[in-house]
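Q: I'm writing up a methods section and want to include an example of the input and output format. Could you take the sequence below and give the corresponding predicted structure tokens, formatted cleanly so I can copy it straight into the document?
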Amino acid sequence: MPIQGHSYDVIVGSGALAELADVIPSSAERIAVVTQPGIPAQFNELAAYVPDCAVEVFEIGVGEGAKTLATIEQLMRSFARMGLNRNDVVIGAGGGMVTDVAGFAAASWHRGIPVVHVSTSLLGMVDAAIGGKTGVNLPEGKNLVGAFWQPSGVICDLDALATLPPREMRCGLGEMAKYHFLTGDDLLAMELEERIARCIEIKAEVVASDEREGGRRALLNYGHTLAHALEIATDHRLAHGEAVAIGLIYAAELGLELGRIDEARVAEHRAVVAGEYDLSTRPPDGLAVDDLVALMHRDKKALTGLTFALDGPDGVEVVTGVDEAPVRAALERFLAS
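A: Here is the clean output for your methods example:
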């Protein structure tokens, strides 16, 4: 991952966990492993891979309801009890929620200590575990409190994917689908391992040019503006990757409403999301336009009015100050579809 002044390795493949020691900082004497119930033991019982370190494992709750400042406080107090210092390391072992929380905890403890991610979900491998965005939720919005904190390394052991429930795998496919529209690559022609590695390369190239999301990095949020609103509006009954899949279709519909793309390009979005990945392309029933628009106004990208990553003649671009009228028109049509 070529971040200016802080490059790190992302190791992808079956059995990649065996290389964990290679990405642990040599200064570490203690390791705090942040994980959660349900993560297979071989991916969070890591003492055998780092025999020269004292390892303690801390479980956090499952689901977005545990992605809170209260969880961060609990971890901080655990770090204090074990004597974790700036020479030591935190490992986030799990899916995207775990690595978001572990990364924020590491960024905050002693104003920043190293973190390594052992990603066990497809969504984490292609998105959450790489790039250094960390954070937790507030009732007012998703990931509103956090930090940019690059890991010292990331392990993507593809053996973990065999343990994923079908819904978790679909969530990763929803996040993967966005990469089809960020480059001209024929990702569908690739085997899964190659496709994961290519998604990581795409994200690395974007993040290297804009680490702190001052502009271009927001492209990686294609489909996410509505997705985050949908997650909150459904009390997270709609999982992140599921919401992103729906958000990609809405972004295409909004692009059509604004005259940026044509019907054929919208159909291409539907063909990838629904046809190739077999994901839902319509939002749940019972949602209100006013509520969703209000939630989209809270999006972190919304610096000057409503902001979206939108497809267009030059590809996906960040578009600021989008007028609310076409947003509502596209949303009303979309909810009624």
